[in-house]
């Protein structure tokens, strides 16, 4: 089973931001891929299970950014 969800992240401005968010989200159990669109702040996460909003928010916060919504 593969679950794909798109989130919006505030505060990303450069390639380092993309790397930080990607690194933290990839570390979440079950995450298989992360695609970050810097221009829109859209972050698409594909995982082997349904992720809780708290898990995603904690990873984004750890990276130094804010999950919107």
Give the helix/strand layout.
Blueprint: E1 3-10, H1 15-26, E2 31-37, E3 42-47, H2 53-63, E4 66-68
Antiparallel strand pairs: 1-3, 1-4, 2-3
Annotation keywords:
69 residues; alpha+beta; four-stranded antiparallel β-sheet; 2 helices; globular
Structure description:
This protein has two helices and four strands, in the order E-H-E-E-H-E. By secondary structure, it is of the alpha+beta class. The protein has a four-stranded antiparallel beta sheet. Helix 1 (15-26) packs across helix 2. The termini are far apart.
In order across it, which strands form the biggest sheet?
Answer: 2-3-1-4
Which runs of at least 5 residues are low in confidence (pLDDT < 50)? none
Radius of gyration: 11 Å
Helix content: 25-40%
Strand content: 25-35%
Based on DSSP secondary structure assignment, what is the total number of beta strands? 4
> What is the H-and-E element order?
EHEEHE
The gross shape turns out to be: globular
Mean pLDDT: 97
Q: Biggest sheet: strands, sense, closure?
A: 4 strands, antiparallel
Terminal Cα separation, in Å?
25 Å
Number of helices: 2
Structural class: alpha+beta
